[in-house]
Amino acid sequence: MTIAVQDRTDSTGKYRLLDVQPLNPTIGAYVGGVDLTQPFGEDVADELRMALADHLAIFLRDQPLDFEAHRRLAAVFGEAHVAPSTKPWRVPGFDEITRMHADETSKYVAGEDWHSDMSCDPAPPMGSLLYLHTIPPVGGDTVFSNMYAAWDALSDRMKAMLDGLRAVHDGAKAFGGIVPRDMELPCTSHPIARTHPVTGRKALYVNRGYTTRIEGLPVRESEALLSFLYDHAQNPMFQCRFTWSPHAIAIWDNRCGQHMAIWDYFPQVRSGFRIQVKGEVPV
Ligand code: SIN
What we know:
CATH topology: Double-stranded beta-helix
Number of strands: 17
CATH class: Alpha Beta
Radius of gyration: 19 Å
Bound molecules: succinic acid
Number of domains: 1
Strand content: 25-35%
């Protein structure tokens, strides 16, 4: 069954079905005009993909998704990525759905440092869909940063030096001490300037959460350069901050953005589910 949605042709004429409201000129948009709890047509799916390509992170409110609806929404963007490191938190019967939960017993939360999801994988997930049903009274925002903007803002000389270099992304940096000790975690090198397969644009692809060193550089040079790039990537000019409401969903593109979960709400509860979508080997 396809649900009829209102025609909302916007002033640019780009979105006919969805109501897409940018948070700022650089990254993030609120998306309305669709009920994701019900099956929707390919026309809506096309506009969701377009909104993600345009804004890198999109946010939809009041969408009380069950596991099937979450799965259906993720399928708009591709096949599910099932990372071995999510095993301890998987929803029984839904291997691709990871429970994301924090409360007064939590010792850490996922994604507390700036990162691009699972960038340690040889083919990291292209995107992620996080649904939260329970949020703290205040706090628990997620911050997103545009890595096209970060790349574009580097000087031509810096770009020329970085282009062609590769950096190592190590799962042990992100998950060491969190997952069972015998779990093998991926460690892979990727280009520092990554070309997005859909937009063809270059994005800065190193992050504090996973990246450990730049290949081919002495340790001190690698550390200094990475430290500069992490700081550069955190410029508020490249960012937006999403304040959750119960049953909101955030969808983001890991190929051209980074994000960070703000754990300022301990001992309150924040809870929901995440699906990641398969991506390609970064080039
Ligand atoms: C994540 O990094 O996938 C989690 C983000 C969040 O919980 O806000």
